[in-house]
Amino acid sequence: MTIDVLPGGATSPAPHAATSGVPGSIRLWQAVAAAHAALTVELAADAFAVLVSLGDEPGRQLRMHELAERSHLTPSGLTRRVDRLESDGLVDRVGCPGDRRGAFARLTQRGLDELERAIPHHAAVLDRYIGTRLDGTEADGLVALLGGLVGRPGRALARRVDPPPETMSGRGR
After folding, report:
1. Is-contact 11 67, C-beta < 8 A?
2. Alpha carbon distances (Å) from 20 to 17, 40, 84, 168
């Protein structure tokens, strides 16, 4: 399979990969992963994802496990990111009333100011990468399609009637 390099060092299957025998679902996953990787590098997206997730909430705070889910980081990755954001004065940790072990991450005023400054930059980058390829209706459709897939892998797998005839090693199950 030939791989083309995208901006930011991410890779994507070349257009002729469709003839390689790789199932379309795997090519789709490769394309989504490559697009995500390219944009993550370009946007320093893990920090932005934390800030925008907090900025979207009433009180500008979330429990750490909820923030990990919304920012698509592992719990340990989120802890490291929040540590850095906290040392930069962009977020702070607040104890959970009623749960002494729990903690909220809360967006500070400085964090809100940084988020408001970053949004136009991120929107411009995304417009450059996505807006030139998709019109508004196509982008809305893609958002709905991808949003509909989130959190539902079990349903898709439950529909499969027959197991695949071969594993990656080429042997049957």
Report:
1. no
2. 5, 28, 43, 15
Write out pLDDT tens, residues 79-104: 999 999 999 999 999 988 777 778 89
- pLDDT value of position 19: 58
**What's the full length of the chain, in residues?**
173
* Nearest partner of 31 among 45, 19, 13, 44, judged by Cα: 13
- Burial (CB < 10 A; 0-12, 13-18, 19+), residue 86, is middle
Rg (CA), the chain: 20
H/E element holding 159? helix 153-159
Nearest to 146 by CA among 32, 52, 60: 32
Average pLDDT over residues 2-30: 61
In this predicted model, which residue has the larger pLDDT, 55 or 135? Answer: 55
pLDDT band at 2 (very low <50, low <70, confident <90, very high): very low
Handedness of CA 57, 58, 60, 66 (dihedral sign): negative
Tell if the pTM clears 0.85, that is, is over it: no
Q: Give the N- to C-terminal CA distance of the chain in Å, as an integer.
A: 25
Backbone angles phi and psi of 107, in degrees to 5: -75, 125
Domains present along the chain, CATH in parentheses: 1-43 (no CATH), 44-140 (1.10.10.10)
